[in-house]
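sorry to bug you again but im stuck and you know this stuff better than me. below you get a single protein, a line of residues and a line of whole numbers that encode the local backbone shape. mainly i need to know what kind of three dimensional shape the backbone takes. anything you notice is useful, everything is just below:

***
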Amino acid sequence: MAQVELEGKTEPLSRRGPLRRFLKQWDIQLMVLPAMMFILVFSYVPMYGVLMAFQDYSLFKGFMNSPWVGLKHFEMFFQAPEFWTVIRNTLVISALKLCIGFPAPILLALMLNEVGRRSFKRLIQTISYLPHFLSWVIVSGFVISILSTDNGSLNILLQKLNLIEDPVNFLSEPKYFWSILTLTNVWKEIGFSSIVYLAAIAGINPQLYEAASIDGASRMKQIFTITVPSIMPVVVVFFILAIGNFLNAGFEDILLLAGNPVLRDVSDVIDTYVYRIGIQNSRYSYATAAGLFKSIISVVLLTGANYLARKSGNSLW
């Protein structure tokens, strides 16, 4: 425990007053202040808007004068004809992203850790990192170009291999959309997401590998007995965060890749539904109720995942 000399006595830092601790660490506190202000302004202040979910909100009447209607909009959302379609799409797309997108960067980090040549390792890292820094507008244009029926690379390749006779319009076929969306997300984020796991692997004591080699353990054996258990606390923490964001099936990627109305039955998730109903149709209270429903379920999932992870000794709180 940190201690401070005060009038000839040693006083634990934790027992000092909040103001005195703040003044003692003023330079560090100033570094955190911009991030705290950003979160306050863009995350906490807008929460006042959830009141719209319990009102027949009107732009002209405002929050104070709009009539209160209780749970009316929640009932409308649950009884809407498209409710189960939206929920199904949200759960399926989120599950695909979690089951494929979550372990993918871990596997990439484990493979990169086994690469002996640093130049080749850096090249692979650079190539895999780059898509993360591209906006979804650019990525979606890239994917649409590859899957195009007019000189699209994938259709040309499949025709050259005699796997298809005529070009396939992949982005107009609902049966392909979930696969395209999932693989695009994995390709875009796998490299950047692997950074934290590579950092965790770099912190493993090299003597553990040396001892395992002396005992005759193969490289594969070392991965499963040393590397994976050592990074498991980091994996658990990020898995908890992934569960908390489970219902965030996507917005930009779906909005840009599912431009064809034919795909709405397989692409409409809670976020895109809220955007379409709330912004385009100006049903603010109804859209707020749908978004609040998603947020409440996310909090429950996050709390439940953290409770289960706490039993293993690796939790957020």
The chain has one domain: 80-310. The longest helix spans residues 174-202. Confidence is low (pLDDT under 50) at residues 1-8. DSSP finds 16 helices and two strands in the chain.
